[in-house]
Amino acid sequence: MKYVLVYLIRGKAERYHQSLVRSVGPKFGENYMIENPLPSHITLKSPFKTRKIKDLEKTLYEFSKEHTATKMQIDGFGNFRKFVIFLRIKFSERSKQIQKDLLKAIKKIKGVEIHEFDKKHKPHATIGYGNNKKSFKEIWNYLMNLDKPKFNLKFDNITILKKPKKYWIIHKIYKLR
User: Where exactly are the structural domains of the chain?
Assistant: First the structure.
């Protein structure tokens, strides 16, 4: 089965993110995020397949008991290659270290590969995709006319999402101390 490790965004920031996803896709004909719904999240480890889910669960349980919650912030909008449009996330130094420690911990699980983009982590919360220059520009201009989002978040969970069929669903949430 396919899994991904994420931080789940909650509260006002989650509601804000979901409202953007629900408005941007239909407004600009870029409906991938609507047709493939996900909980509001920040990816901590890119998708992977494993049959060692019990090993992963045990590792994350132990990891969550050893690490304390810390701060991060949503601070504006960003994009990757004028294609992926997202809420920009500022990790504190402590948050960056937790993500690095997480990769070290799960790397020990047989079959879980750590990719280069996991190591060069760029925290973000995807809003949508601009599949061509025109739609990207329209979405980007729309977002630039909104007030700059700013939310303080508490990095207090590591969550396993799984993809048993078409959609990602929550498998298990681990609370940091």
Answer: 2-175
Place of tokens 């396919």: 2
Q: Report d(CA 113, CA 129) in Å as an integer.
A: 26
pLDDT for 145-170, tens place per residue? 999 999 999 999 999 999 999 999 99
Helix 11-28 vs helix 133-144: crossing angle, to nearest 10: 140
Structure tokens at 37: 């719904």
What does the alpha-carbon distance between residue 154 and residue 55 come to, in Å, rounded to a whole number? 26
What's the rounded Cα separation, in Å, for the pair 79 and 127?
A: 10
| Residues 124/153, Cβ–Cβ less than 8 Å | no
Taking only the tens place, the pLDDT of each residue in 2-46 is 999 999 999 999 999 999 999 999 999 999 999 999 999 999 999
Fold of 2-175: Cyclic Phosphodiesterase; Chain: A, (3.90.1140)
Alpha-carbon Rg for the chain, nearest whole angstrom, is: 16
Name every residue whose Cβ is closer than 8 Å to that of residue 110 and which is 6 or more positions away in sequence.
52, 55
